[in-house]
Each structure stands twice: as structure tokens, then as C-alpha cells.
């Protein structure tokens, strides 16, 4: 039977911090410093458990709070290190990769865009290839972003008429410009509906490695 390890830590993300910064970036968490970065952590049982809705909501809330205060790399939900020493070794091992990733996402936020077929459009427009139209729009939006990730299809997409999903890493100072571009694209492509959510932490642009 799995047992909670004394001193185990739940990792929410890694942030760029000023030297000597003591204040937490999110309520209920603390910072574990290594050079110019810090892990956002809280005590947590060292067990394999499913991430339920409550835990996921807390994970998102903490990362959004931290993201509002600075640059953060999100960790996968449910990530727990056995001890502070283990986490410090991981920060040391991956320090340069983490600092490079922080430099890439600094001053940026993620915009998630979903494109659906417009239920109010029929007739000739229904003959168009919606996937082709969506791909054309995504190419245009990609020119506004520092990076783009095509998101996998989700359950229910067919029923909801979703033809494409993507995440765009956007300069925070150009956020409104990006939203305006999406709005103009929606006018240009009346057969499609566009939805933008965010600004989000860069969930879709970070893949942390925990092996080795």
C-alpha cells in the first residue's frame, strides 16, 4: 500500500524569480528556490491518485494566480516529489532547460482558439470544405503568434461542429490585437464561428521531463 512520505511536495510549476524573493506567487503555496528560479509547491502525499475536478480546479487557480505575477512553466497536474532534496536535484539537473523555456514564454500568454461550423449558415456555404477554411484561418493567426500548437480533437467535437482547435503563444502587449485579428477573420469567414479563451498560462507549450 502506498504511504504518504514525510516532506513530499506537490509541484504546480516553476517560476522566474528575483533573488531573495520570499513572497509566494499563489495563496497556500511556497517557493523552493534554486538560483534564478523557484518551484511553486505545497505539501502533498507521495501517492498515485487520480486528479479529480477539485484538484484540477485548484491546480488551474494556482497557476493562473502565479502567471498574473510573473513568468511560470506549468507542471502536469498531480506531480509530487518524494522530498525537497529530490525536487532540488531535479531543478539543478534541468536548470538550463528550465531557464531557456522561461525566457521563451516570458511576457507571453496562451490563447486557445476553437473553430466551429456556423449552425446559421446553409445553402452554398455548406458546400465548402470547412476544414480547408479553418486551416486557412489558422495560418493567418499563426503569423501573429510566437508559437502555435494544434490541439487534439476532444470528445463531442463532431456533435458541436468543431473543425479545428489551436493554441497560440501571444505577446501580452499584443493580446487585444490578436483578438481583433480573430474577430476580423470571423467576419471574413462567415461559414465558421471562432471562439478565443485566455489569456492562459502556457500549458500547451511546456512539456516537463521527470526521468533521469
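Sequence proposed for the structure above (212 residues):
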Amino acid at each position: 500500500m502506498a504511504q504518504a512520505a514525510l516532506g513530499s511536495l506537490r509541484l504546480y510549476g516553476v517560476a522566474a524569480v528575483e533573488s531573495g524573493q520570499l513572497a509566494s506567487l499563489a495563496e497556500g503555496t511556497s517557493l523552493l528556490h534554486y538560483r534564478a528560479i523557484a518551484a511553486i509547491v505545497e505539501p502533498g502525499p507521495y501517492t498515485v491518485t487520480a486528479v479529480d475536478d477539485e484538484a484540477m480546479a485548484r491546480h488551474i487557480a494556482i497557476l493562473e494566480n502565479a502567471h498574473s505575477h510573473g513568468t511560470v512553466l506549468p507542471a502536469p497536474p498531480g506531480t509530487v516529489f518524494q522530498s525537497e532534496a529530490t525536487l532540488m536535484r531535479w531543478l539543478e539537473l534541468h536548470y538550463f532547460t528550465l531557464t531557456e523555456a522561461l525566457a521563451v514564454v516570458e511576457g507571453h500568454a496562451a490563447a486557445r482558439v476553437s473553430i466551429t461550423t456556423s449552425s446559421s449558415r446553409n445553402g452554398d456555404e455548406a458546400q465548402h470544405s470547412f476544414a480547408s477554411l479553418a486551416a486557412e484561418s489558422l495560418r493567418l493567426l499563426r503569423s501573429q503568434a510566437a508559437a502555435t500548437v494544434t490541439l487534439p480533437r476532444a470528445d463531442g467535437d463532431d456533435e458541436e461542429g468543431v473543425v479545428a482547435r489551436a493554441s497560440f503563444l501571444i505577446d501580452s502587449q499584443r493580446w487585444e490585437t490578436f483578438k481583433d485579428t480573430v474577430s476580423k477573420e470571423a467576419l471574413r469567414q462567415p461559414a465558421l464561428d471562432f471562439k478565443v479563451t485566455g489569456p492562459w498560462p502556457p500549458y500547451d507549450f511546456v512539456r516537463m521531463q521527470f526521468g533521469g
